[in-house]
Amino acid sequence: MLRTGDPCLEIEGLIHDVGPIAAEGGRMKRVLAGVDLAAHRGQVTVLLGVNGAGKTTTLECAQGLRRRTGGTVRLLGQDPQTASAELRSRVGVMLQDGGLPPSARPLALLRHVAGMYRDPLPVAELAERLGLNEFAGTTIRRLSGGQKQRVALAAALIGRPDVVFLDEPSAGLDPQSRQVVFDLIADLRTQGLGIILTTHLLDDAERLADWVAILDRGRIVAEGTVAELLGTATTTARRLTLRATAGLDLAEAFAGTGPVDIAEAPAGHYTIDGELTTAHLAALTRWLDARGIMPSSLELGRHSLEDVFLGIAEASAEEELASTARKTA
Ligand SMILES: Nc1ncnc2c1ncn2[C@@H]1O[C@H](COP(=O)(O)OP(=O)(O)OP(=O)(O)O)[C@@H](O)[C@H]1O
């Protein structure tokens, strides 16, 4: 996909070391090992990775909240570590644990934050959109995780930023609030904001992302649109699941087609894996028809981002094992 819109964030070779770590013999730990990432205006860029992959650290280095050990970061054209107050006012940030003052009430807090900007969004409008009025009189400390999350999102957006960082924006949200937040993110994208968000939820990435970068052990291991990432999986096995009478000799059904792996577990639940084509489907249904067997279900599995993600995570874990084995040999 052509990435349209000006780049709002350009990261090259980002390295971040932490430590010294006492538990590791006083050694430094490399948390980011050369991250390259670009985010553009008018797009949602999703940084996807398992717990501990380095997502939050990448965001914090991108915002200048952590000093990097190496590499370059340009946020709206400036180095965030030495950025002007003017740059900061153009960046919205929603951190993972909110960072909200516990004794404040949501609307008073938002009015206060709005007062720091030259041209803030109307507080009432944002509060209405994010459903904050339901708990306007409650102090932040008494709000649920999802309610705090919505207040934190409002605070990140109130200054009409050009770029917004959202760390796990859907964490703790019920399905309805999640939809509200996702719709808002989609609107912000249409308005030309650059949105960079982290998640470990594949569903979030599939629903929101214009561009996905998969982070694993401090490195970007794959990136592209969701379609492109799924495209990389089309050459790998696809799965057919069938529920029918127990004990069928399905190998016979596929005798004239390309090779497949067939498993039956539990009885009557079959999975057929392989490079499946319409010829496999035709062979199976012909074989069933000839025996008068009507399956109770027959489903062709589509690839999901989960397949891609799990494949990458597995390959990376194997690589790490091999490298540890080499070091200890
Ligand atoms: N100051 C620090 N001292 C020691 N280890 C650290 C420090 N900061 C980060 N780490 C480690 O760096 C790794 C990356 O952390 P980070 O919070 O960026 O991951 P993440 O992908 O955001 O994970 P999560 O999804 O759990 O938030 C983790 O293993 C974390 O424990």
TrEMBL record:
<feature type="domain" description="ABC transporter">
    <location>
        <begin position="9"/>
        <end position="242"/>
    </location>
</feature>
<dbReference type="GO" id="GO:0005524">
    <property type="term" value="F:ATP binding"/>
</dbReference>
<keyword id="KW-0547">Nucleotide-binding</keyword>
<dbReference type="InterPro" id="IPR003593">
    <property type="entry name" value="AAA+_ATPase"/>
</dbReference>
<keyword id="KW-0046">Antibiotic resistance</keyword>
<dbReference type="InterPro" id="IPR027417">
    <property type="entry name" value="P-loop_NTPase"/>
</dbReference>
<dbReference type="InterPro" id="IPR003439">
    <property type="entry name" value="ABC_transporter-like_ATP-bd"/>
</dbReference>
<protein>
    <submittedName>
        <fullName>ABC transporter ATP-binding protein</fullName>
    </submittedName>
</protein>
<keyword id="KW-0813">Transport</keyword>
<dbReference type="InterPro" id="IPR017871">
    <property type="entry name" value="ABC_transporter-like_CS"/>
</dbReference>
<dbReference type="Pfam" id="PF00005">
    <property type="entry name" value="ABC_tran"/>
</dbReference>
<dbReference type="InterPro" id="IPR050763">
    <property type="entry name" value="ABC_transporter_ATP-binding"/>
</dbReference>
<keyword id="KW-0067">ATP-binding</keyword>
